[in-house]
């Protein structure tokens, strides 16, 4: 009986053949040792009643495994086929020519020889160098050039718009610190830099940008000249060309089809290529065929430092933006966020020129089409709160607001992972799967389970995933005009109310202030929260004077009748160290009440100093936390802290006191009066 059951369970072929008189001994044994030899007499011993593979060598077997990707342009029947085949070759040639031009070191050759494909991939003849004449898999481009240098003799292999699976393989084979975690994500390390380096971000100051951009105190635009840019560009390009292979991504920014920008990212790491694959908008195969030349190019040579003897360089890191050349160069940092936020800066320049407002905000939409924006500095909750199971996600970080509505600039999200839990943030948790880049996380060496509470590498652990990994993403990522504009502040002083309703002047005052206060980091033993003011909740990325963006926001909010709110996602019941961070569940309830419109109808009272309108009740939230003073046991300390914060706001706003916001002089006065009064 036992043997019979065992036979039923086993799907072994060949033995459970009802040939009587033959049974396995009891106990766990290997079922397929003998064959039908006992019955078939002197036949040769074999065990292959199933079909066999139709090859004669192991190489042939391997060649069967990968089928060539189907051409994306349907080749017409009949006479057109030959024409289509030629034009495909021609198209690839144009594409390689364009990549060669991107990689040209401008002082020497016109561009390197480029060849498409992995140099380690064996050709049919076993060679690994490109086949010059009979191009099979690889298209090749050799520029006509008189000058000969070592770099003009070698090929630069281009890994063009690889798929996530291919990029996983590249990362795991060649990039130390790349692993697959148990959820299927690709874990990587970004090296010495685990966050952005705003003090190393430079912008070329030329005749045009001199007048157009915001320079000087408070501005993120640290100047450099054209010549220095070219020195760094050459350094990056030479570094990239010295490698055996580079990754090239051709993608889009902005879901608004009329204002879409074509971007090319040239990088040395599969990690960077997969990151941008996830974060930018992915072209369809057809869109890629007609991509042509990009509107903007990033040269990411982050593994290679800049030269400190180069004028303007103050460290080994430099992130350089040249708007005239439409190029960005990255040296000395591998933190992938530089690319995403660098392109965001470009959009903060290009879009306002078209009278489109670019926003450092998350954005989602309710079932009835009500759109909300979530402004806030890093770590205040844009990604967390815009990812809401009951609403459609338009985007978590970068948007545009046009005459017709909003559009996401990106094609993916970049979530903080520190202390991530399945219970509190199920959608982000589930988005961390095959295809997602997991930066700087710690995992179990055997099970590969990620420990999101482990901050050994950095506190700024991140997951980058395509937006469609969020089940209720709104694709295409566009929506109508916003109804609510939510300003997020993580107030570690614990004096800002959990939610305040703002009038237009207050909304503008707080938008221009861009306040948050974070604890500087538990390790350093810093007890005192530090206030940060970052104009437009994104001073690191804006290119024009903050009042330009503020004026556009005021005009749009007024025209659309949008309501402004200030939500404190930080401390309650005392400053950091005494009080505690407002529960995410409470913040979500507050946000729900904003979306539903119920909060608009609540009863309000006015606070001291800041003059906020705060609700007296919100369903599901203990009423006593709505007015911060109630949650503080030390009332005197509360008042002192409130006055201190008010003072910091005042001091910060001084630099804006002489600026007119838009053409409306009355609004400017109202904004100046909308700050703290004491
Ligand atoms: N009350 C709260 N509201 C929002 N986020 C909170 C709250 N309490 C804790 N958090 C945590 O703060 C972090 C917010 O980060 P994130 O949403 O990525 O910010 P941003 O996208 O603005 O940079 C998340 O790790 C989130 O879990
Ligand atoms: C990636 C960033 O954005 P955020 O923290 O707002 O998600 C950043 O500021 O570097
Ligand atoms: Ca940010
Ligand atoms: Mn975010």
From TrEMBL:
Keywords: ATP-binding, Cytoplasm, Decarboxylase, Gluconeogenesis, Kinase, Lyase, Nucleotide-binding, Pyruvate, Transferase
Name of the protein in its database record: phosphoenolpyruvate carboxykinase (ATP)
Oligomeric and partner information: Monomer.
Region Disordered, residue ranges: 1-34, 105-135
Function: Involved in the gluconeogenesis. Catalyzes the conversion of oxaloacetate (OAA) to phosphoenolpyruvate (PEP) through direct phosphoryl transfer between the nucleoside triphosphate and OAA.
Transmembrane region(s): none
Gene Ontology molecular function, alphabetical: ATP binding; kinase activity; phosphoenolpyruvate carboxykinase (ATP) activity
Keyword presence, Kinase: yes
Keyword Protease carried by entry: no
Predominant location category: cytoplasm
Top-rank taxon, per record: Eukaryota
Pathway assigned in UniProt: Carbohydrate biosynthesis; gluconeogenesis
Reactions catalysed: oxaloacetate + ATP = phosphoenolpyruvate + ADP + CO2
CC per GO annotation: cytosol
EC number: 4.1.1.49
Skewed-composition ranges (Basic and acidic residues): 115-125
EC category name: lyase
């Amino acid at each position: 009986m036992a043997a019979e059951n065992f036979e039923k369970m086993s799907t072994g072929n060949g033995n459970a053949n009802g040939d009587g008189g033959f049974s396995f001994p009891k106990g766990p044994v290997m079922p397929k040792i003998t064959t039908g030899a006992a019955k078939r007499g002197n036949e040769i011993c074999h065990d292959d009643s199933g079909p066999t593979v139709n090859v004669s060598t192991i190489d042939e077997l391997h060649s069967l495994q990968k089928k060539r990707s189907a051409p994306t342009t349907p080749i017409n029947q009949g006479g057109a086929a030959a024409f289509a085949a030629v034009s495909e070759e021609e198209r690839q040639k144009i594409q390689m020519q364009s990549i060669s031009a991107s990689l040209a070191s401008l002082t020497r050759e016109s561009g390197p020889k480029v060849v498409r494909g992995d140099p380690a991939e064996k050709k049919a003849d076993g060679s690994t160098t490109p086949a010059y004449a009979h191009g099979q898999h690889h298209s090749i481009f050799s520029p006509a050039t008189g000058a000969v240098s070592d770099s003009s003799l070698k090929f630069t292999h281009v890994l063009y718009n690889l798929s996530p699976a291919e990029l996983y393989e590249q990362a795991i084979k060649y990039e130390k610190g790349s692993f697959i975690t148990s959820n299927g994500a690709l874990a990587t390390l970004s090296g010495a830099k685990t966050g952005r380096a705003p003090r190393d971000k430079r912008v070329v100051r030329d005749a045009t940008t001199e007048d157009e951009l915001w320079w000087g105190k408070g501005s993120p635009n640290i100047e450099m000249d054209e010549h220095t840019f070219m020195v760094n560009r050459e350094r990056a390009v030479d570094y990239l060309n010295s490698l055996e292979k580079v990754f090239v991504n051709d993608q889009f920014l902005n879901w608004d089809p009329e204002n879409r920008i074509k971007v090319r990212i040239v990088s040395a790491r599969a990690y960077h290529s997969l990151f941008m694959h996830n974060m930018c908008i992915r072209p369809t195969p057809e869109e890629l065929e007609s991509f042509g030349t990009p509107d903007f190019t990033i040269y990411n040579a982050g593994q290679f430092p800049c030269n400190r003897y180069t004028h303007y360089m103050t460290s080994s890191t430099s992130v350089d933006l040249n708007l005239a050349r439409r190029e960005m160069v990255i040296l000395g940092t591998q933190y992938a966020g530089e690319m995403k936020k660098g392109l965001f800066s470009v959009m903060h320049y290009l879009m306002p020129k078209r009278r489109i407002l670019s926003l450092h905000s998350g954005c989602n939409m309710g079932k009835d089409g009500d759109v909300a924006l979530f402004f806030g500095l890093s770590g205040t909750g844009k990604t967390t709160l815009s990812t809401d199971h009951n609403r459609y996600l338009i985007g978590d970080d970068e948007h545009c607001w046009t005459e017709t509505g909003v559009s996401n600039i990106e094609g993916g999200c970049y979530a903080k992972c520190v202390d991530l839990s399945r219970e509190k943030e199920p959608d982000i948790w589930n988005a961390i799967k095959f295809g997602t880049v997991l930066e700087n996380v710690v995992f179990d060496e055997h099970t590969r389970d990620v420990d999101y509470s482990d901050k050994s590498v950095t506190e700024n652990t991140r997951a980058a995933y395509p937006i469609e990994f969020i089940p209720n993403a709104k694709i295409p990522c566009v929506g109508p005009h916003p109804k609510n504009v939510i300003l997020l502040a993580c107030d570690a002083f614990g004096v800002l109310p959990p939610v305040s309703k703002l009038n237009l002047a207050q909304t503008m005052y707080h938008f221009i202030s861009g306040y948050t206060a974070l604890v500087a980091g538990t390790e350093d033993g810093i007890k005192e929260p530090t206030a940060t003011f970052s104009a437009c909740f994104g001073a690191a990325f804006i290119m024009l004077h903050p009042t330009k963006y503020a004026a556009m926001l005021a005009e749009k909010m007024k025209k659309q009748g949008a309501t402004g709110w200030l939500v404190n996602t930080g401390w309650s019941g005392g400053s950091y160290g005494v009080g505690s961070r407002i529960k995410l569940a409470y913040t979500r309830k507050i946000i729900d009440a904003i979306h539903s419109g119920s909060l608009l109808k609540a009863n309000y009272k006015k606070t001291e100093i800041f003059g906020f309108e705060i609700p007296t009740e919100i369903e599901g939230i203990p009423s006593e936390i709505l007015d911060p003073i109630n949650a503080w046991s030390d009332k005197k300390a509360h008042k002192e802290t409130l006055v201190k914060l008010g003072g910091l706001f005042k001091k910060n706003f001084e630099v804006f006191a002489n600026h007119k916001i838009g053409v409306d002089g009355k609004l400017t006065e109202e904004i100046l009066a909308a700050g703290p009064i004491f």
